[in-house]
Amino acid sequence: MRLFAFALREYDELGYLEGYAGEQGFEFGWTSEYPSEENLGLARGYDAISCITNPMDAARLDALHDLGARWIATRSIGYDHIDVAHARSIGMRVAHSAYPPEGVANYAIMLMMMAARKMKLIERTDDAQDFGLHGKIGLDISQATVGVVGTGRIGATVVRHLSGFGCKILACDPYPSEEVGRLATYVSLDELLASSDIVTLHAPGLPENHHMIDAAAFARMRRGAILVNAARGSLVDTAALVDAVETGQLGGAALDTIENESDLYYLDRSRDVLPNRDRAVLKGLPNVIVTPHMAFYTEEDVRNMVRSSTGALLAFSRGEDSPFEVK
């Protein structure tokens, strides 16, 4: 197998890929640049492509296929940025990665605690030497009802770890888990929204989940509730979110992912005027925390992302199945 990696980070991913290549005996080339019309030619002669959460639409897949690529894997759990149907239609097998759920789960819990205790406002006023308490009273999650939407590996870990705080936990998932059911009460999404002080999202970014939290959903939530999203930006209607915050229906939000974030993360855009007004509005709100889609970012998770996605490509090159193939 000859692998070409796009958007590979020299300061972390490269070392893991070099080590794995030494173990498994495959060749690879790489660039830190995201794939574009100008640089796709770098992958000429490589049969395997590794990418991250950058768009891989039909045109890019066709171009890579013409250059010799037959397999593509994303170094992320989510794969909605790849046109999987088109890849299949041209004979390209697609894979994603896997990593332990604790990193994202614990980050989500950190976000909900920061939002519940109004840390963004506290830090802002502390910088201005305003040490007063007015408007800064918080919510102790041990006394809260937390609704967990989606109880796959990450959502189930959130439930398990939250159980140690002593809070009441509600859960919603089309496929209830017996393990989760011992720690949380499964209810409908409507009941979860109406009964929760904090709602945390851990559902996949599937078309049927697009804007699952919209204006109607915000209207069903408890007034002053908090929304946490460390899953997929497409789950939340951003315009409806801003309206809910501005009217006070939503008491706050903590978001590690938002809509239309492609080509922003994980780049240094500090000198650019960003074409993303939603992010600017959200960042300006004192009770909304926005972080740059980095809940996954731990040493263990990054190592597993590289190894699992690359392992899937190796399996494809041998004509074998992989548990990480997108079916």
SSE layout and pairing:
Blueprint (H helix, E strand, L loop, with lengths): L1 E4 L7 H12 L2 E4 L17 E4 L6 H9 L4 E4 L9 H6 L3 E3 L6 H15 L2 H9 L17 E5 L3 H10 L5 E5 L5 H4 L3 E2 L2 H7 L2 E4 L13 H6 L4 E5 L8 H10 L2 E6 L21 H8 L3 E3 L8 H19 L10
Parallel strand pairs: 1-2, 1-3, 3-4, 4-5, 6-7, 6-9, 7-8, 9-10, 10-11, 11-12
Helix pairs in contact: 1-12, 4-6
Q: What is the C-alpha radius of gyration, as a whole number of Å? A: 21 Å
Shape summary: globular
What is the number of helical segments per DSSP (H or I, 4+ residues)? 12
Strand content: 5-15%
Which structural category fits the helices and strands? alpha/beta
Secondary structure: number of strands: 12
Provide an overview of this structure:
With 327 residues, the chain is α/β, with parallel strands linked by helices. The chain has two domains: 118 residues, Rossmann fold (3-Layer(aba) Sandwich); 189 residues, NAD(P)-binding Rossmann-like Domain (Rossmann fold), CATH 3.40.50.720. Helices cover 35% and strands 15% of the residues. The chain has a seven-stranded parallel sheet, sandwiched between helices. A five-stranded parallel sheet has the order 2-1-3-4-5. Helix 1 packs parallel to helix 12. It is globular and about 60 Å long. The two termini are 22 Å apart. The mean pLDDT is 96.
